[in-house]
């Protein structure tokens, strides 16, 4: 240590105290009130990449101007007369946590500022490494989740078609967010299954998944069913009261199907719940708080119902945060072969027999319109399973008659020289022939095919048919 530095520090430190500071891993320095740097320990030299003989005796302003550090703590301590801690970038490229502490003389003035420095560089590197590991862990979790959902999709949800691929892409993206989802689509398109997939892909997967078909509950009972009620709230109420589905779904997911049937007078209460996660049971005065994710579904056009005044616009906006429209089976014909294989496999496992579909039956299904969508396909194949008995092959004869009659071969729609009038006449005949086998009265036939009784009388005469199966043609 230079003689001038030793001379400056000797009045303030005993030899043994200097040895103590020299042994410390943290950097230590001392400035006077000028402020001028008086002394630094060896750790301070190493942390800052400086030499004592080059810096001791210089003012803080000089050291700052030479780029030894980006900001100083000494002036702050002198001004505040209180301990101050700062983060400092130093010449060596390290990041230091610097603590400055004032030392007062007998007059109460700051005579010295003693600083200690701790290297944050390694801590920052460790923090960055931990953050990277956390990011990697999170990414792995996301990938595992995506694999799980894709595995679920392969086993339960067929998505070969572009339309269903787009649906599943949205489902994967929205699953782990607690945002409200509105599923729309015709009956039988699989809205409840998609709602379940969203729940299974979320952080709530281990909690309850409850569903309510709003169209199946009378309006008078809807409030009690959803929000619960206090004991004695109304005639016939349980004495101990009853919790509603919202409270039962706490920390889980609630799926409201046919949300378009939700009573108009209760929609404001549902809106309040969505905004606050709070609700008041019937007959109670206390607000209950829950944590529930809501997924809603409808087979109607809610926007049209808003225009007609049958659905609140503010509730529609609140439900429609992430809309997901499910395509009809007609819009995803590419999925039909895989859906058929999946349903047949499921039926084979359920009934303990292995069956397969013959080409003619497959051709009929390919030409069928499926107004009931995927649910109807499942029912059609189960019908064929039951009707096939002990046979191993499902043929066209095992399919429901409606499928056989409506899945008219292409030649009957204008091919092979058939005119449009002839094709229409052929369809009339097939419909009437089926109805005559099932009914003995013209009024019943009219009800089934959706026309008036006089029209049925005219068509029966045209085609030479009689109710009750006595077919003349």
Structure explained in plain terms:
There is one protein chain. This protein has 473 residues and is α/β, with parallel strands linked by helices. It folds into 4 domains: 117 residues, PAS domain (Beta-Lactamase, 2-Layer Sandwich); 171 residues, P-loop containing nucleotide triphosphate hydrolases (Rossmann fold, 3-Layer(aba) Sandwich), CATH 3.40.50.300; 77 residues, Helicase, Ruva Protein, domain 3 (Orthogonal Bundle), CATH 1.10.8.60; 54 residues. The chain is built from 21 helices and 14 strands. The strands form 4 sheets. The protein has a 5-stranded antiparallel β-sheet with strand order 2-1-5-4-3. A 5-stranded parallel β-sheet has the order 7-8-11-6-12. Strand 4 and strand 5 form a beta hairpin. The longest helix has 36 residues. The radius of gyration is 40 Å and the shape is elongated. The chain starts with a helix and ends in a 10-residue tail after the last helix. The N terminus is likely disordered. Pfam families: AAA_lid_14, PAS_4, Sigma54_activat. This is Sigma 54-interacting transcriptional regulator. It comes from Sneathiella sedimenti.
């Amino acid at each position: 240590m230079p003689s001038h530095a030793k001379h400056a520090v000797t009045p303030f430190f005993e030899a043994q105290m200097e040895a103590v500071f020299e042994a410390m891993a943290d950097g230590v320095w001392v400035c006077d009130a000028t402020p001028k740097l008086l002394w630094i320990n060896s750790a301070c030299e190493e942390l800052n990449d400086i030499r004592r003989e080059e810096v001791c005796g210089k003012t803080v302003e000089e050291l700052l101007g030479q780029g030894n550090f980006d900001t100083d703590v000494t002036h702050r301590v002198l001004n505040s007369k209180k301990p101050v801690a700062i983060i400092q970038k130093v010449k060596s490229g390290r990041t230091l946590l610097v603590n400055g502490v004032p030392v007062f003389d007998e007059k109460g003035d700051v005579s010295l500022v003693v600083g200690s420095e701790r290297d944050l560089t390694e801590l920052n590197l460790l923090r960055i490494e931990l953050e990277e590991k956390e990011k990697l862990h999170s990414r792995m979790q996301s990938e595992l989740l995506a694999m799980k959902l894709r595995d679920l999709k392969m086993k339960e949800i067929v998505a070969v078609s572009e339309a269903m691929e787009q649906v599943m892409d949205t489902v994967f993206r929205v699953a782990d967010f607690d945002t409200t989802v509105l599923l729309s689509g015709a009956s039988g398109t699989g809205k409840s299954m998609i709602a379940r997939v969203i729940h299974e892909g979320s952080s709530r997967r281990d909690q309850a998944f409850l569903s309510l078909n709003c169209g199946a509950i009378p309006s008078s009972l809807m409030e009690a069913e959803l929000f619960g009620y206090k004991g004695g709230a109304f005639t016939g109420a349980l004495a101990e009261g009853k919790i509603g589905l919202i409270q039962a779904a706490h920390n889980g997911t609630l799926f409201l199907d046919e949300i378009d049937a939700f009573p108009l007078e209760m929609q404001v209460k549902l809106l309040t719940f969505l905004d606050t996660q709070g609700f008041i049971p019937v007959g109670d005065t206390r607000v209950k708080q829950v944590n529930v994710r809501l997924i809603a579904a409808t087979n109607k056009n809610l926007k049209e119902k808003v225009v007609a005044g049958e659905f609140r616009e503010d509730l529609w906006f609140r439900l429609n945060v992430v809309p997901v429209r499910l395509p009809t089976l007609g819009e995803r014909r590419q999925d039909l072969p895989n859906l058929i294989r999946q349903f047949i496999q499921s039926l084979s496992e359920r009934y303990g027999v292995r069956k397969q579909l013959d080409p003619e039956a497959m051709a009929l299904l390919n030409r069928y319109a499926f107004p009931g969508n995927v649910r109807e396909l499942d029912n059609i194949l189960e019908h064929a399973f039951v009707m096939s008995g002990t046979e191993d092959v499902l043929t066209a004869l095992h399919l429901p008659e409606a499928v056989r009659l409506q899945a008219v071969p292409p030649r009957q729609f204008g091919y092979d020289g058939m005119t449009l009038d002839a094709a229409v006449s052929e369809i009339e005949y097939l419909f009437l022939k089926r109805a005559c086998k099932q009914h003995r009265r013209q009024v019943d036939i009219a009800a089934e095919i959706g026309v008036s009784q006089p029209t049925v009388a005219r068509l029966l005469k045209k085609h030479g048919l009689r109710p009750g199966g006595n077919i003349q043609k």
